[in-house]
Amino acid sequence: MNGEPLRIGTRSSPLALWQAHWVAEELKRSGQPVEVVHVSTKGDVTSGPLGEIGGQGLFTKEIQAALLENRVDIAVHSLKDLPTDPTPGLALAAVPTREACGDVLVSRGGFHVDTLPQGAIVGTGSVRRRAQLLHARPDLDIRDIRGNVETRLRKMDEGEYEAIVLAEAGLRRLEMADRIIHVIDKRVMLPAVGQGALGIEVRDSDHRAKAAVGVLHHPDSYHCVQAERVLLAELRGGCLAPVGAWARLELERDLLHLDGVVISGDGVQKISAYACGPPTKAAEIGRQVASQLIIQGAQRIISYARTSGGRG
Ligand SMILES: NCc1[nH]cc(CCC(=O)O)c1CC(=O)O
């Protein structure tokens, strides 16, 4: 009914493939023919600490290039990997229903952040996770870890780390929910901006693709990630900054609540802010929380952290 199949571009990691195939199935169900096209990215092929390899957009740039060069028609991103600066020629056309957005502590011993042994080695490549863990537990020995979700779990199982931190959403999508023993309390760790959500991008001029992916758009999820992304953009943070944010809706009162945090890399300085308002004012709520953080000195912490880097 809708002509040529739309080409969905994806990275080749198991999580990226799961996400692309999920979008493919949903679009097929709506009557839209699609095909999935693999695009390799530097984020997948390079090893070594992320802070040294490259900046934000590591996982998304090459899919975006494929989109702009007409090699694919639809890009499926983990929204937390997608920079907040708009890309000329592209449009974020749909944000589907968000999966659980929290961070999980995975360990062989079933530990909580509070019960990890003194000085335990915890693996994470993310400055946001590192800083929040150190804030709660300055004694922990936080070490870098790379690779996709499966690789990280294997490294922990083999004993290289006592525990690792992963996104709850990734574990659920990969049917590894049995690994979720402890979802870290949001008072201890706020998620990355956009964590748990997908972002579906198309060429701004491609009205057929825009209309097709529209069936996947979930306005409630969109309002939440919009508040978080405006917060990050206002801080000029990027996905490598030690920034956490958590927006959620309280449907009974039609309110969007937004918490934001900026933490120094060593976990010593932590500044927090909160605002709420109607979901249709999501961007304004994001700006409010950002300005409260800036008043408390967010900019200094972020520019200092930029020299060390780290994602997630
Ligand atoms: N940093 C890579 C990345 N990008 C998105 C997810 C998980 C899925 C999501 O947040 O939507 C992950 C893995 C992780 O952080 O554990």
Structural write-up:
Keywords: Porphyrin biosynthesis, Transferase. With 312 residues, the protein is α/β, with parallel strands linked by helices. It folds into three domains: 6-97 and 196-217, Periplasmic binding protein-like II (D-Maltodextrin-Binding Protein, domain 2), CATH 3.40.190; 103-183, D-Maltodextrin-Binding Protein, domain 2 (3-Layer(aba) Sandwich), CATH 3.40.190.10; 226-305, Porphobilinogen deaminase, C-terminal domain (Double Stranded RNA Binding Domain, 2-Layer Sandwich). The protein is built from eleven helices and 13 strands. It has helices spanning 14-29, 42-45, 50-53, 61-68, 127-136, 149-157, 168-173, 207-213, 219-234, 282-295, 298-305, and strands at 6-10, 34-38, 74-78, 90-94, 103-107, 121-123, 141-143, 163-167, 182-183, 198-203, 243-250, 255-263, 270-277. Strands 2-1-3-10-4 form a five-stranded mixed beta sheet, sandwiched between helices. A five-stranded mixed beta sheet has the order 7-6-8-5-9, sandwiched between helices. Helix 9 (219-234) packs parallel to helix 10. The longest helix is centred in the N-terminal third of the chain and has 16 residues, at 14-29. The protein is globular, with a radius of gyration of 19 Å.
